[in-house]
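User: For a benchmark we're assembling, each entry needs the component sequences followed by a predicted structure for the full assembly. Here are entry 17's components. Please fill in the structure.
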Amino acid sequence: MSSAENAQRGSFVLLQLAEGRFALPADLVAELAPPVRLHSFPHTSRLLTGVILRRGRILPVYDAARALYGKGSLNHRFYLVARRRFGPTSEMSAIPVDGECELITSEMNPAPLTAPSYICGEINAGDGLIGVLDFDALVGSHPEGGGSADRVEPRP
Amino acid sequence: MKIAALDAPRPRQFRAAEPVILFTVSRQSFAIAADAVQEIRSTDSIAGAAAEFHLEQVPKVRHTFQRGHRQYYVVNACTHFGLRISRPTLVLILRQLRAAVLVDRIERMTELSAIYDLPRAFSGEETRWYRGLAYLDDHVIPVCDPRGFLSPGEFRLLDDAPQSVAMQCELQGAASHE
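Assistant: Structure for entry 17:
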């Protein structure tokens, strides 16, 4: 069970990704960072656009908007720094977001049956229902490159 | 939630500064340990000694040359890293590997006090290409692993190619006449 499923009633961070509004469980979120310089270099990992430097760490940057909508964020203003799990360990990662984020407390309801696998629930944010992102599932739904037919072109 | 201040990466472990060569390929900077490079030559200087080579499975190797009774394979770094093809002017001849790398230019030599692990999010071929990342003059630069330019499997394919076998026969013949 993911930590998003554990959340039930809890705190969520609302974020804008391209034209969509989503929520992330607040316990996965470390900070909202200003749009610092993106450092890019050739690689073949999907969804990654490069790295940023934050608090003495090198953080990978996931283009979540591209994963969701097939295009990058529209008006990238901040990086949301969130934790991604790798088995028993985790790694801080950055997600470019369009606009500011909002912290709310809400009860998480199960996701509709028709929801994609990376939506693990729904919360009521006052002005409507918002899907709760399962960050690990979102990244996992885009298999990595690595020499097979799935190989993506290296991106500088 | 808070907005943090800017800062440089903090090294997890300190070690003696490592001399590296900074080079560029298709406007992208890379570093490689200085002791991994035996010699830097201009492409013109090896043009006469290099033979064209083609193996469909390893398209990044288009030339080979002989040196000290050993056959070296020339890796085009643009193709290797998937970058836009540029016009290389230099060849880095690697130490302890029968490989040379075509690069655009050498930026400079410097010393790295720390090499940071590649984040685990990176899980593609780059895990073989890079030893890690360096932070230098406000830039994050990948530090190349010399063994990443040609894998043992690629060496086997190259060595088994008919062109290689013919050259190895020539080399053995030349050695026996000496």
